[in-house]
Amino acid sequence: MKGNLYIGVVAAAGGAVLVASVGNILALGLQGSELAWLGIAVLTVLVGRLSVKLPLPNCRVSFSDAFIFLSVMVFGGDLATLTAALDGFASSSRDKGTWHKKAFNTTGMALSVNLSARVFAWLLPQGGLWGARFSAIDLMVPVAALAFTQYVLNTALVSGVVALKEQQSLIAIWQDSSPWAGSAYLAGSVAAAVVFLVVRELGVVSAFAILPFPGILYLTYRACLDRLVRTKGGVPF
Question: Do residues 85 and 109 make contact, with C-beta atoms less than 8 angstroms apart?
Answer without folding.
Answer: yes
